[in-house]
Amino acid sequence: MNAPLAAPKPRKAEAPAALAPQPAKVAAVFGTWKTECAEKAPKPNCQVIVRSAVGDQIALVLGIARPTKGGARMQMAVPLGLAIDKGVTIKVGVYSNTFPISRCTAQGCLVEGEVPQAFIEALQKGNGGAAIIYSSDSQTIKLPLPAKSFAEAYASISTTN
Question: Which CATH superfamily is domain 24-156 in?
Fold first, then answer.
């Protein structure tokens, strides 16, 4: 005859398998661009970020980081309700490129990945641009992408990551 199973002993709470994202704090402001750095990172981990509004709504958020290895990386958030297959077209000065949508969340759709050097150079010239998205009914929507003060903000994180 088998002995009855005993109730399992309570265990201490275990640490999560992965670290939660670190909260960021604004390190410096350069016009509409800001630098944000992870608060509890073992070494500086900063990005430049711009939030662009249409009316009283934030319509575009663009963050660009400079990792120690590899090229600059970005994450851009745009509103939901767009034609995902058309991606997001960025135009700054003479620079133009279409980026695919990586994924969408409840807050918006994201473009993530490596930043072409030509895009960085166009932003550094300080001319404003636009992120162009297309609604699901094919209407063109231009979201402002300010570039003024980007060069100073970007230079400020060149040695932090």
Answer: Invasion associated locus B (IalB) protein (2.60.40.1880)
